[in-house]
Amino acid sequence: MTDPRPKLATLESLRGLLALWVVVAHVTARVISAPSISSLHAQAPLEPLLPVYVFMILSGFVIFSLLQRQDESWGVFTLRRFFRLAPLYFAVLLVAASLQAFELRTLDHLFWRNDHIYDSIKIHHGTLAHFWPHFWAHASLLHGLVPETLLPDANFSFLSQGWSISLEWQFYLLAPLLFLLIHRSRYLALGLLAGSIAVLGALGYPSVGFLPNQFVYFALGIASFYMYRSCGWLARITPRAHDLLLPVIGLTLYVLLRQPLPILVWLVVFDAVLARHAGLETPLTSSVNRFLEWPLLQGLGRMSYSVYLVHITVMYVVFRAITRFDEHLGGLKFLLLALPATLILTLAIAAVTYRWIEVPGMALGRLLGARLEKQSLPAQPSIQAS
To answer: Using the 8-state DSSP alphabet, how is residue 259 labeled?
Structure first.
C-alpha cells in the first residue's frame, strides 16, 4: 500500500494563505461596500466565507489522513482534537467577551455604514442583550447547533468567525464513525448515515454552523483523501497532457459551479500534492509545490489557527485607533491604514499565542491522550480495529 500520509508542508502553507485571505476579506468588507466594486469577480476574493470553505475541504482530507495513520480509540482522538482547538479558542473567547461594549462603541464611531457594519452592530446589541445564553453556547463549542430561531446570531456573537470552530468540532465528533464505516466496508450503515446528513442539510436548518449544512465540503476533502491513497493512475498521464487538462477542468468547474472559487483553489493545490505523490512532476505542479514549500509560508501555516482566531479582535482595536486619530477618515484611505496595521498586529500576536497557548495545548492533548490510551487499550477497541 502506498504511504497514506499527505505532503503536509504544502497543505500547511495553504492554511496560512487561507488565514490571510480571511483577514483581508473581513477588514475590506467592513470598509469598502459591495456596490462600490462593480465586478462580481472582484467581489468574490473579498468574501470571507470562501476561504473557510477551502478550510473545510482541507479538514476533511487531513482528519482522515490522521485517522488512517493513528490507530486509536474515538475517545483518544476526540480528546487530542479538543486540545487542538480549545485552549486558544477559550482564551480568545474570554478576551472577545470582555470587549463587546468596546467593539460596539468602535462601530458606532465609524461615520460610514454598509451591510457588514449594520450586521455587526445588530449582532453586538443582541450579544449584550443576551450575554450569558450566547456565552454558554460558545463555551460548549456547539453554538453552531443553536438555530437562529432560538437565539438569533448565536453563530456570530463574540467571535464572528467562531461558527466555523463549532463546525470543525462537530466534524471531529463524527469523523471517526465515518472512517470506521468506510474502513470496515459497512456500506449500508454508511449510506444511511450519509443519507441522514443529506436530509438534514436539505431541511434548511437555520444555522450556518450546523454540520449537515456544510458537509459537502468536508465530503470533498474525504474523497480527495481516498483519491490520494490510490493515485497510481495519475502516473500514466504525461506531464504535457496534465498541464493541458488541468485548465480545462478548472474552466469547466468555473462555468458549472455557483461558487467555484473554493473548489478551484483546492483543485490547484491538491493536484500538485497528488501529482508529486504519484511521481508525476510537471512544470505547473512543480511551480505550485515550490511556491507552497516556501519556509515563510509554512511558518505562517503553522500559526494560521491563531491568525484566524485573533484577527477580529485586533481589527476592532485598529479601527478604534484610526477613528481616534481622524473620526472622518473613511474609504480607501482608511483601508490603507487599517489593513496593513491589522495584518501586522495579528501576525505578531498570533506568533505569541501559537508559541504560548497552541503548542502547550497540543502537548497537553498528546499527554492526556497517551494516558487515556494506556488506560483504555485492553477494553476499548480502536477506530481501525476489525
So the answer is: S
